[in-house]
Amino acid sequence: MSKNRSILILTAQFGEGHVQTAQTIANQYKNRGYNRVYVCDLYGIAYPAIHSFAQTLLKKSFTKFGAPIYKMFYYGTDKLSSKGLAYFYQHLGKKRLLELIERYNPTTIITTFPLHAGAYLRFRLNIPIPTYTVITDYCAHPLWTHPMIEKYYVASCDVKDTLISFGVTESRIKVTGIPIRSSFSKMEFCKKSIYQTFALKAEKKTVTFLGGGLGLVPNILPTLQYLLKNETIQIAIVCGKNQPLKEKLEEMSIEMNGRFRVYGYLNNLHELLLITDCLVTKAGAITLTEAAALKIPMVLLKPNPGQESENTDYFKRQNAVIATRNDTEVINGIHRILFDANVREQITSKVSQIYYSDAADRIVSDIIADVSRINTNIKTVRQGRM
Predict the structure, then answer these.
(1) Is the distance from CB of 218 to CB of 59 less than 8 angstroms?
(2) What mean pLDDT comes out for the span 118-143?
(3) What is the pTM of this model?
(4) CA of 371: how far to CAs of 2, 145, 210, 281, 362, in Å?
(5) 1 in a domain, yes or no?
(6) Do 17 and 117 reside in the same domain of the chain?
């Protein structure tokens, strides 16, 4: 496959994970010398109203009243997909994608969100661009599938089995793990300097609360107040891009004499996690994978319906996390990880077994080989017709 050929990676701003995965794959191509690699938010540009609705729906799913709505949306579309929704869904973004194809002339399309416009155009308009999908959760929804997608790259054998149950042939599925940022692997670090960077103390046990890129975390004040009674514990809270939450927690920290540290979006999150003894987080797949790469024991907050719930269930089945439903269970889970060596070692061992190293490298290598195979087959067929 020529490195001068164009690669188009389609994604959507429905949370941070899809975009981050797209960028990770793009970086892997660029590291191999491919300069014509383009990451595009297909829905955000083509359908700003849908994009706005999706973002609102995601944020509302973290509220008491929004969770049932999101649950109905997620599982309702699961049931409806076989009744025509998937047919409607594959038309979304079709016009915008045609514009992108004309502009970039891609020889490969990769999606990190259930976007079927590429596969549809290939089928209906005979646009012969191989299309590949990277599933960014430890579960799969029927909307991820389309008969014209060449291959699917998935997080686990469980996801593979789910796709097979949807009718995808086994040969079109590869278990590669979920791609994560290169900063979470092959690191050289000095823990002493990291503690200094984050104004934390090396002699204390560090509990980090993380709400993903959007900083969506529930009310954690009761948990903070209880944990801070123990002088051996220090707390770091990462608010992501949620500036109102950051400002609110900073005010609380001042009122509590700076007993916990508050951070916004961190480009060096991997460094903070390296000195984290227990991670308390929502069950976003990228966060779970990054923590697994660093072998960090996790307490999972009560999941939202849909992907979070499915991700939590998968990690629970592997005995790789402590899943909770309320403040009391969160506190108990943190204490078990911090002060019970057997629990900590068991969870650390199990979570490390979930992680697939070099997922982006595996995916890109396989796509390059597969596109080369397809091009060779096309060339052979054409020569046979001459």
Answers:
(1) no
(2) 84
(3) 0.88
(4) 10, 20, 39, 38, 14
(5) no
(6) yes
